[in-house]
Amino acid sequence: MERTREQHTLLVSILLHLVPGVLATILFVLLEGPVVAFGFPPIAAFLAAIALVVIPFELGLLLWLGRNRNGGLSLDGVVLYREPMRGRDWAWLYPVLLLAAFLGFGILAVIEPALRSALFGWLPSWFLTLIDFDAIRTYSANAWLITLAAYFVLNVFAGPITEELYFRGYLLPRIDRFGRWAPLINVTLFSLYHLWSPWQILARIAGVGPFAYAVWWKRNIYLGMAVHVSLNLIATTIVAVTVTSRL
């Protein structure tokens, strides 16, 4: 498999993978108090961190690199793995990867409560449970409707698409000198980047790993986007239906 000539050192790659997660988690923690005091649930602080840190950092860096390279708003040469893929490959890979992601997240979810309790029980309850379904009516219907609208925009579309551009389209090709280890390194660091939910690290490796390998194999980030968006759409819809049914 042909490699991009530009390669990051492992240290640089680790930093580029983790820094946006560190900054977003810090902002989330800082915003939780003011956001709740303003009448919104804790997840609204998390969404604000995504909107104010994760997307601007990741997409902003890509656009800045593209401008330096191409002299305009172009990601050519910055975001790679955009080779076309045959329709018949889409027809079987997409459902298989979606199922693999469900199984990966689902099977590992069984041990998450034990991990959360044993290793992260010292964290505040609002950090451990972004949405307390037993306390939905603590916040107004209007606050929830605004929060859920932002949740759909950021968690279903803007966030996953930006992450796939950044993690699989930009960072993964720049460690492909590691060959078949590259996707595993990428998905492990991607899982660690989610510092706001560290108890899900193993589940994310299991759930994201298959489509990260498929992106690397087919050199097509759009496959990863499709699976990532679909997963988040299903999860976000379940959350939204549960919340609205209890208002």
What does this structure look like?
- There is one protein chain.
- The protein is 73% helix and 0% strand.
- With 247 residues, it is mainly α.
- It has one domain.
Helix content: over 70%
Question: Please, what is the average pLDDT?
Answer: 96
Largest β sheet strand count, sense and barrel closure? none
Instruction: Give the C-alpha Rg.
Output: 18 Å
Strand composition percent: under 5%
Essential attributes:
single chain, globular, 73% helix, 0% strand, mainly alpha, 247 residues
Secondary structure layout plus pairing:
Elements: H1 10-37, H2 42-70, H3 87-109, H4 112-120, H5 125-128, H6 141-171, H7 182-193, H8 201-218, H9 221-246
Task: Give a brief outline of the structure.
The protein is built from nine helices and no strands. The chain has helices spanning 10-37, 42-70, 87-109, 112-120, 125-128, 141-171, 182-193, 201-218, 221-246. Helix 6 (141-171) runs antiparallel to helix 9 (221-246) and helix 8 (201-218) runs antiparallel to helix 9.
